Amino acid sequence: LKNFNAAFGNVLGSNLFNFLILVIADISYRQGSLYVPLFDNKVLVVFGTLVSVFALIILYKYKWAKLFALFIIISYVSYLFISI
Q: pTM, whole model, 2 decimals?
């Protein structure tokens, strides 16, 4: 539909709602911190960054879309195997 404003608003609104839930959970939870540093968090950040870069390449270089879509799927599956 090429309604980029609606898509951007949907993503931004969803992220703001998720942060609102985290704020409420952090205020109501009194037994420590919700944010526990784990190895999985670092792996998740690395794979999330890879997927974001691949998605941006797909957006700007359409002829490479199939190759980088395959990289996104491979990075998702490899994260699933690493996180088990």
A: 0.46
